[in-house]
Amino acid sequence: MYTNHHTVKVSDLRKHTTEVIEEVEEMEEPVTVFSHSKPKIVIMSFKVFQRMKPGRDKEETADDGEKHGLDFFIDPPEEMLVKKKGIDIVKEIRKLRGYTD
Amino acid sequence: MTKKTLVVDASVLLAHFVPHENHHDLARQFFERVKHQKLTLILPVITFCETLQVYFRIFQNRNAGDRLFQEMIDWNIQKNLRLINLEAGFLTYFAAHHTLFALKTSDSILAITAHRFKCPLISWDKQLVQNAAKHVRAITPEEFLKKK
Fold first, then answer.
1. What are the start-end ranges of the E strands in B1-148?
2. What's the mean per-residue pLDDT of chain B?
3. DSSP code for B4
4. Inter-chain contact B71–A97, Cβ cutoff 8 Å?
5. Residues sharing a CB contact under 8 Å with residue A20, sequence separation 6 or more, in sequence order
6. Partner residue facing A60 (CB), from B64, B78, B104
7. What is the arithmetic mean of pLDDT over B92-111?
């Protein structure tokens, strides 16, 4: 284990490159590489990089032509709508939480 | 620059999925405002679970429930929906502050999350809003939309 609290020493990166890459690949966050106790560079898995790419927080219309994430909540597809009458969301949640009102 | 954040209740996430619900139209406007102002929503994991449970209870459609889960995860990946794990750090904060609120556990978790992150709690549940408002800024989406 060469990474610790999302940091790794440059000496470990140099000596144990393969192992460090494997550890970083499994992590969900970027890892800061320290040299002489100072942060020098940040490395991350390709998966994390994809998530952080500019444009991810813009409108998400995927290859399938559907909206995702926040845009999905703004404009949910027809098949996701609950069309039953008489549903009170707050009452349903309060019932789940154990309120008896 | 720090992003503006709001803690949201399951009622806020679900109202827009029920067209006959009183809050349906305002729910959409709320999400549009969230997008326009680039707000980040904060959601304790227990509220995430409740959202899925209530949606399934009212719809009884497993595929739709799975899709809702996936879209919330996608929103989380977009970095605009932050999930709060109920881990040791949260537990310590909860232990220190839960006596402030006379609420059921799930509601307390929401109120304490808002207290911890010093941000407003948004819910359609007026009783929750009223009880939490003693110690955090708690408002309905309707009140939130009235502010520019």
1. 5-8, 40-44, 81-84, 121-122, 138-139
2. 93
3. P
4. no
5. A2, A3, A8, A12, A13
6. B78
7. 95
DSSP string, B16-51: GG-TTSTTHHHHHHHHHHHHHTT-EEEEEHHHHHHH
Span A89-95, average pLDDT: 94
End-to-end CA distance of chain A: 53
| Interface residue of A57, A71, A90, A96 to substitute, partner B, most B CBs within 10 Å | A90
Average pLDDT over residues B22-49: 94
Mutant choice from B71, B79, B125, B130 vs A, greatest count of A C-beta within 10 A = B71
Scanning B27-56 for CB atoms below 8 A from A yields: 28, 31-32, 34-35, 38, 50, 53-55
Among the ranges A31-35, A94-98, B76-80, B118-122, which has the highest mean pLDDT value?
B118-122
Average pLDDT over residues B100-124: 96
pLDDT tens figures, A38-85: 888 999 887 777 766 655 544 555 556 788 889 999 999 999 999 999
**What token pair was written down for B142?**
């309707």
Nearby residues of A81 by Cβ (< 8 Å), 6 or more positions away: B17, B18, B19
Polymer length of chain A: 101
